[in-house]
């Protein structure tokens, strides 16, 4: 879908994301392992026009290159254009403290490995599988290792491993080709190094760098250029750029993914000016310690696992958690400070992802009227998982500073609402969270891909060439393709085990099908890498022959054209995520299958599944189910393929990246306006002298008066309230005097007594000493005002509310609201607004359309807000409406009274005027 060109907002859009779309490359002398400059290295790469690109020398520190592969890796690392991908599905940059230059690599020669052969012609080609572990006998002794100057040339020998099964079947004599050769290396980006690291989680094969390497002098006067970043939230970048024509101006706010302690103030200001002037970006400079503690510790080792339903299995000290949390707070504070510094009245602020969950409230504290939105690109876990986070309240409170919080799927939004109700004891509804003086809206905005841009890239002749090569290579065979990060949550190991089950259950496919798995590197610490390699080795050893290998496992990324070629040539795409925010590979596969229309097998735990119902759904933990889904997809009739693909394409082409960005920003502007109108206007004190003339001249008046907290204070004994009695003779006298006037119609708005949900409340009453049950006509209320332990009563109220919403609310139209030391359950379609509507319509049926010309509505809590909204909507013409809340607070009412006594005094003035 292509959005129109009308402006979404006349103000600027400030997009906060942890990593900017740009990074900085410094031209500094190459350094050896000990930090000494080596001036004899000369750059052999041609520099871009007007740019001073650094040399990719062995001593160069590169942030565009991932950490070196162990010697047992299958294929050399290749670069990729990660367009259209969401952050959770992108290649992440290696931990800076763990980066190694080429001179630090273990140059142990690769031993002989098992070889298989495939012969489609007269030529025979060798195939490399997972190499055996290097034995001690195979290793070079220290005196046999090449010296540092020699290592660069020796590395070139290792960069040419034995040919792959993906090599072409027709080759020229004496020459070997890879179907996926290593991509051209990017220019290395020299950047200041982060000197800190977590020694506990540092790869053993990557020695820790010396702190002496870093020096402010090295980068103080060094020439630098702005380069496009290869990591970060690419999906967000593409989506925002796609609607740039609908924005008056867009500013990116984020870090450069680099250490900044070594940069001089002058260099920082120069970088800041260049990015702001020519790239529309504002950098956030954070210290080395804060960067390491925020991103690599708290985000990746605490938040990431919990949000993906993985509780850390290694016990960490309280000091570690508290320390990393302080760094998380510091980085979020730096972002908030930068945003506030660059904010202008009328700007719209869009904060993105779990790295910055404290930023909305930090901004709200300083810019109370700002339009702030937050979008979470990863899953939000159930309350049972989230409550394990030691800073759960702080994180939730940080998010609730936004006007709008967006999620990928309905289940993520539901989990968030339930968690807020359970942990913060706030009132929630399907629309959002109701706070004391404001409301936070919650919305579902599934991200998509830029189909227009993707279709343009598909027209590249190189894509068609790759499709041809693949089809020739695997002629007569079915191709299953997959591309995932080698992370636990992506379910690569489960995919391999399911494929093994498939080959066992359906031996007729042995020798006729190949699974091509592209495994992307990841900075998250996990043991999946070795586990997957073991399974792949076992499967290939069991089912391979001289001319066949069932799994091609690429421990590298591939170029984007190769990726599109794979998706286009595939007979099946297999995605078995154990938990995923969205996974846009499925969208890209649907677009690439425009001609073949082959099916998609998708995990029910991928966020995409909620939208792509025409796929073949699987539980990745059920290997037999996945195996049968593979078989079903392979034997599916063409008519069913076309029908399923049309449904998938309809969603993918409708819910595009442009639609996602436009929808979220438009909704944010709308809800911010609604919240501002409802809560940000100061409510004046009711002036009874101004109201009396309207009251006196009215022919028929409707008085709607709340009971508890309005006519009587909450402090009255509950035993007296529950029986409907009162000792306030003044209140009875005033109400009786008003009701005696034939021109007045007086209603006491109070829901009292009716037995419903008694047994459930009895359960919590018995376990909360001092609490009691109050029966009302419509709702039922559980009070814990007199409980022995009020804090325990509050916790029980949250548990009961969660129980009711999950067990009953999904079946019956009821909802539970935590009030002032009470929990009230009532039907969803029963409210004071419904009651007021029934009263007004009844009077009009009895006395005509002009039956009422004056309405006075007074209440004190959230249940009265619906009544205020309805009454205010009736105002106009001869009808005068006065809505008043008790206490100075944000409300839909137009006036307020300080307390119960002032309400009685005002009503007495009205009653006396009639006398």
TrEMBL record:
Q: Where is the composition biased (Low complexity)?
A: 113-123
- Quick check: keyword Cytoplasm in the entry? yes
User: Which species is listed as the source?
Assistant: Modicella reniformis
Q: What is this protein called?
A: Uncharacterized protein
BP-aspect Gene Ontology terms: trehalose biosynthetic process
**Basic and acidic residues compositional bias: what residue ranges?**
135-146
Tell me, what's a Pfam family for it? Trehalose_PPase
Q: Which keywords fit this entry according to its UniProt record?
A: Cytoplasm, Phosphoprotein
Which family would the database say this protein is a member of? In the N-terminal section; belongs to the glycosyltransferase 20 family.
InterPro entries per the UniProt record, alphabetical: Glyco_trans_20, HAD-like_sf, HAD_sf, Trehalose_PPase
Localization in the cell:
Cytoplasm
Q: Record's Gene3D superfamilies?
A: Glycogen Phosphorylase B (3.40.50.2000), HAD superfamily/HAD-like (3.40.50.1000)
Region Disordered, residue ranges: 84-213
Q: Which GO terms describe its molecular function?
A: alpha,alpha-trehalose-phosphate synthase (UDP-forming) activity; enzyme regulator activity; trehalose-phosphatase activity
């Amino acid at each position: 879908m292509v959005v129109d060109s009308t402006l979404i907002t006349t103000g600027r859009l400030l997009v906060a994301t942890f990593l900017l779309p740009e990074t900085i490359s410094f031209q500094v002398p190459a350094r050896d392992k000990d930090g000494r400059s080596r001036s004899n290295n000369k750059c052999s790469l041609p520099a871009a026009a007007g740019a001073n690109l650094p040399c990719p020398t062995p001593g160069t520190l590169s942030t565009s290159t991932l950490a070196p592969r162990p010697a047992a890796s299958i294929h050399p690392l290749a670069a990729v254009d990660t367009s259209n991908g969401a952050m959770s599905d992108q290649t992440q940059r290696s931990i800076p403290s763990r980066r190694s230059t080429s001179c630090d690599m273990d140059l142990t020669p690769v031993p002989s490995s098992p070889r298989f052969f495939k012969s489609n012609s007269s030529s025979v080609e060798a195939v490399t599988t997972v190499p055996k572990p290097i034995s001690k006998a195979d290793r070079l002794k220290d005196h046999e290792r090449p010296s540092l100057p020699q290592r660069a040339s020796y590395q070139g020998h290792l960069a040419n491993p034995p040919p792959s099964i993906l090599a072409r079947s027709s080759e020229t004599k004496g020459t070997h080709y890879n179907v996926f050769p290593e991509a051209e290396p990017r220019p290395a980006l020299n950047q200041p190094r982060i000197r800190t690291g977590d020694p506990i989680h540092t790869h053993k094969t990557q020695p820790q760098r010396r702190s002496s390497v870093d020096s402010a002098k090295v980068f103080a006067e060094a020439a630098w250029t702005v380069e496009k970043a290869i990591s970060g939230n690419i999906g967000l970048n593409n989506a925002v750029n796609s609607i740039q024509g609908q924005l008056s101006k867009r500013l990116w706010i984020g870090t450069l993914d680099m250490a900044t302690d070594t940069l001089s103030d002058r260099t920082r200001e120069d970088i800041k000016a260049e990015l702001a002037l020519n790239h529309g970006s504002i950098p956030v400079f954070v210290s080395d310690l804060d960067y390491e503690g925020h991103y690599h510790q708290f985000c990746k080792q605490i938040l990431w696992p919990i949000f993906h339903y993985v509780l850390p299995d290694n016990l960490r000290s309280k000091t570690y958690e508290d320390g990393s949390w302080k760094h998380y707070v510091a980085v979020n504070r730096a972002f908030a400070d930068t945003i506030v510094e660059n904010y202008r009245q009328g700007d719209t602020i869009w904060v993105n992802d779990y790295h910055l969950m404290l930023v909305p409230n930090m901004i709200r504290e300083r810019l109370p009227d700002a339009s702030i939105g937050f979008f979470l690109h990863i899953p939000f876990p159930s309350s049972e998982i989230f409550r394990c986070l030691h800073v759960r309240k702080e994180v939730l409170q940080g998010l609730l500073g936004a006007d709008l919080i967006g999620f990928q799927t309905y289940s993520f939004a539901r989990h968030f609402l339930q968690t807020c109700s359970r942990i913060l004891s706030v009132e929630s509804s399907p629309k959002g969270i109701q706070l004391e003086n404001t409301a936070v809206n919650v919305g579902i905005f599934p991200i998509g891909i830029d189909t227009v841009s993707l279709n343009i890239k598909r027209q590249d002749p190189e894509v068609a060439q790759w499709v041809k090569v693949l089809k020739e290579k695997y002629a007569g065979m079915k191709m299953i393709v997959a591309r995932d990060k080698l992370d636990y949550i992506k379910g690569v190991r489960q995919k391999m085990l399911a494929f093994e089950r498939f080959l066992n259950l359906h031996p007729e496919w042995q020798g006729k099908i190949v699974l091509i798995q592209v495994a992307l590197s990841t900075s998250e610490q996990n043991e999946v890498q070795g586990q997957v390699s073991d399974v792949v080795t076992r499967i290939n050893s069991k089912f391979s022959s001289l001319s066949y290998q069932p799994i091609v496992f690429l421990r590298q990324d591939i170029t984007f054209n190769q990726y599109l070629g794979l998706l286009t040539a595939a007979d099946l795409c297999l995605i078995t995520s154990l938990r995923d925010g969205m996974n846009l590979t499925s969208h890209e596969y649907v677009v690439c299958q425009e001609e073949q229309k082959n099916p998609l097998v998708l995990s029910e735990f991928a966020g995409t599944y909620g939208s792509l119902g025409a796929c073949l759904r699987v539980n990745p933990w059920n290997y037999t189910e996945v195996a049968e889904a593979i078989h079903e997809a392979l034997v599916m009739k063409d008519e069913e393929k076309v029908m399923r693909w049309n449904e998938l394409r309809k969603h993918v082409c409708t819910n595009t990246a442009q639609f996602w960005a436009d929808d979220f920003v438009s909704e944010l502007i709308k809800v911010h306006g609604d919240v501002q109108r409802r809560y940000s206007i100061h409510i004046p004190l009711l002036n009874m002298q101004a109201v009396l003339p309207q009251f006196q001249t009215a022919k028929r008046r409707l008085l709607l008066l709340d009971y508890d907290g309005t006519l009587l204070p909450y402090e009255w004994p509950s035993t007296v309230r529950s029986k409907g009695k009162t000792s306030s003779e003044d209140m009875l006298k005033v109400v009786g005097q008003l009701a005696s006037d034939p021109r007045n119609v007086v209603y006491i708005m109070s829901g009292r007594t009716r037995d419903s949900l008694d047994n459930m409340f009895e359960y919590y009453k018995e376990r909360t000493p001092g609490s009691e049950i109050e029966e009302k006509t419509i709702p039922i209320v559980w009070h814990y005002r007199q409980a022995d332990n009020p804090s325990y009563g509050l916790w029980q109220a949250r548990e009961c509310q969660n129980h009711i919403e999950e067990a009953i609310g999904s079946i019956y139209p009821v909802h539970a609201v935590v009030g002032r030391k009470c929990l009230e359950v009532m039907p969803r379609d029963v409210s004071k607004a419904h009651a007021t509507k029934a009263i007004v319509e009844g009077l009009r049926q009895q006395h005509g359309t002009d039956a009422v010309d004056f309405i006075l509505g007074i209440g004190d809590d959230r249940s009265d807000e619906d009544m205020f909204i309805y009454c205010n909507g009736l105002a106009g013409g001869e009808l005068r409406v006065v809505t008043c809340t008790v206490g100075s607070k944000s409300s839909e009412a137009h006036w307020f009274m300080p307390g119960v006594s002032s309400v009685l005094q005002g009503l007495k003035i009205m009653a006396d005027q009639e006398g």
